[in-house]
Amino acid sequence: MFKHSDYVPKTRHERWIEARLPIIRFSHETAVSYPVPRNLNYFWTFGGILTFMLAAQIVTGIVLAMHYVPNSDLAFQSIERIMRDVNYGWLIRYLHANGASMFFIAVYVHIFRGLYYGSYKAPREIIWILGITNLLIMMATAFLGYVLPWGQMSFWGATVITNLFSAIPLVGETIVQYLWGGYSVGNATLNRFFSLHYLLPFMLVGTVTLHVWALHHVGQNNPTGVEITDFRKDTVPFTPHATLKDLFSIITFIIFFAYWVFYMPNYLGHADNYIPANPAVTPAHIVPEWYFLPFYAILRAIPDKLGGVIAMVLAIVIVVFLPWIDTSKVRSMSYRPIARPLLRMFIAAFIGLGYLGSMPAEGGYVIAARILTMLYFGYFVALPIVGLFETPLPLPLSIKESVLARHKTPDLLVGRPAMRKQKTASG
């Protein structure tokens, strides 16, 4: 557990507040004096980017909810009215719609960083579980939000995805009817989805708070995977070191975000969603948003409906169990010569499945999707086996040493070979 800050109230007002609600001390411990490993790279700034994106999505979503009409006859027209008649409504809508894609870009980078550097390993299992829980809530929220414009892709996407629950034996049809609020996707469905879409982001705030709380309790991982041994040498205060790095990354990400909003606001969407929902006309090719495509490809790769649903759900849920699937004692893939290319194969399979999910479910696309699905799940089969016999590269003895080695400090030449040999022998 990390040490507390040495914050001391300096004024009479601060002492009065501290005696009744130590919020200033809590803020100081969380965002000022909190010790972070001195070797963190820019991949660790995506937590701050995600916090910013969550706040942006909530603010823009609340404003849009003020003008949106959750009625199957008026929803599409209310979106057009927001775009044309509400002051800066077009900007708020594009920020919210593209913000969902930016949110998923950041969360996928955040997850893959955790996979590469072993951030799921003990004692950070709860942090990892909460992180995947956040992903599931994000996915549910994004799906519900995609239905709200009530265009062709919204309507038929809702129809296809909710129908997947009918594959569950005995209770599937009942679940679908409860989701629809009737016997087909309609006005009741839209009202339910709007209510849940408004509620879930605030649930996400709660789980993110737990995620950060757990992180601050056990401390952050770092690129070497070596635990902190000396706070004075291995860590730096969160402010200004991590704060400035986070601020720079957030500004850079905002510029990237703004490019999509102002130059290609509809590129990540689907043209059919600018056509009002019509239950009598089925689109030629029904696809979800791009961030669901890898899992959609897995769903379609399995010829059986129930089997496809199970595989799609398992593709997400299995990630939760990585702390116990990975048997290696070494965290960072930087020191794992066999597991590292396996992870690269896994990431390539994920990206490939994303592409195949946007293609028609026919011919060679289905065959390729099945091959990549096997590679995707093969990673979780191979990882525990590799961890048993893999010989990792020598680890640095401390975080400070890894920083000095990166800058090629001559001090490391003294006594280093014997220490490294002893470290390797002790495991």
Automatic annotation (TrEMBL):
One of its GO terms (biological process) is respiratory electron transport chain. Binds 2 heme groups non-covalently. Its cofactor is heme; heme b. It is found in: Membrane. GO terms for cellular component: respiratory chain complex III. The keyword Translocase does not apply. Residues 228-397 form the Cytochrome b/b6 C-terminal region profile domain. Signal peptide: none annotated. Heme b b566 binds at residues 110, 211. A ubiquinone binds at residue 216. Residues 13-224 form the Cytochrome b/b6 N-terminal region profile domain. Keywords: Electron transport, Heme, Iron, Membrane, Metal-binding, Respiratory chain, Transmembrane, Transmembrane helix, Transport. InterPro entries: Cyt_b/b6_C, Cyt_b/b6_C_sf, Cyt_b/b6_N, Cytb/b6-like_sf, Cytochrome_b, Cytochrome_b_C_euk/bac, Cytochrome_b_N_euk/bac, Di-haem_cyt_TM. It is a multi-pass membrane protein. It comes from the Bacteria. Pfam families: Cytochrom_B_C (PF00032), Cytochrome_B (PF00033). Heme b b562 binds at residues 96, 197. The main subunits of complex b-c1 are: cytochrome b, cytochrome c1 and the Rieske protein. Belongs to the cytochrome b family. This is Cytochrome b. It comes from Microvirga vignae.
